[in-house]
Amino acid sequence: MGKVHVGINLEFVRHADKNLEWAVAKAAQLGYDYVEPMVHWGRELLSEAGYFHSVSMFDDPLRIKRACAKAGVKLSGLSAHTPLCKPEIGVEYLKQAIRFAAECGAPVVNTDEGPKQAWTTEEEDHALMRYTLMEAAKVAEPRGILIGLEPHQQYSKHPAGLDRIYKLVNSPAIGINFDTGNSYLSGHDPCKWLAKVVGRLVHLHAKDISLAQSEAERGKVSGTPVGCACGDGVVDWAWVIAICKKARRDIVLSVECGTVDQAERSIACLRALI
Length: 274
Known about the structure:
Blueprint: E1 4-9, H1 20-30, E2 34-36, E3 39-40, H2 45-49, E4 55-56, H3 62-71, E5 74-75, E6 78-83, H4 87-104, E7 108-112, H5 122-143, E8 146-149, H6 159-166, E9 174-179, H7 180-185, H8 190-197, E10 201-206, H9 211-217, H10 237-244, E11 251-255, H11 260-273
Parallel strand pairs: 1-2, 1-11, 2-5, 3-4, 6-7, 7-8, 8-9, 9-10, 10-11
């Protein structure tokens, strides 16, 4: 049985126009033990100017390690979402993210199948995803890095679809990064779905969905970037935590919300339940 910890995806400072170091320090100040940074390819203006939290994989991985050490927090994983259905992007992106994670000390790299090409069939997409995941697994296995597959797009929006992607490659490096909000918005009971995958769970995106968003989007979308504060929405967090305690490894509930205020309310809610 695993222990349950509370962390936060650094998306909570997306609209605060702050950089990685500020985000990590703010997470620690709010009481979070773990953080999940986002990484990207190349260079872009906002991150380079210090107005965005995402870190280029052309940067030094030790930048993340130093920021976490200074703030006294640990890494739960890296948000490295790339379209598995598009190997011309996904293969090298995911392999670089895995090498980056190994050097900065992040145990999990999270991704999903991403938007598909309009002209490929479902069978073709799964063959492409198998190629991408096989290449990534061969880099992840010797480094002890786990790949967390998230329910987020067209094929993983239901349990059978996520299972099919998971089974494409038989590797101990591949697991599930469950997202409570995405699973709910796609029309499922997140707790029941989580219970089915808890044996393969490596990480969890703790995303709550407001009643207003639920009424507007449930059953119409397969996911959303961030949710509301944990405890302000529809997700039963006591049940989620109880299920996660049955996992085979320690699980970090990585909060995905949109503001610093929501992050503060989220940790108060989850700490009380844990």
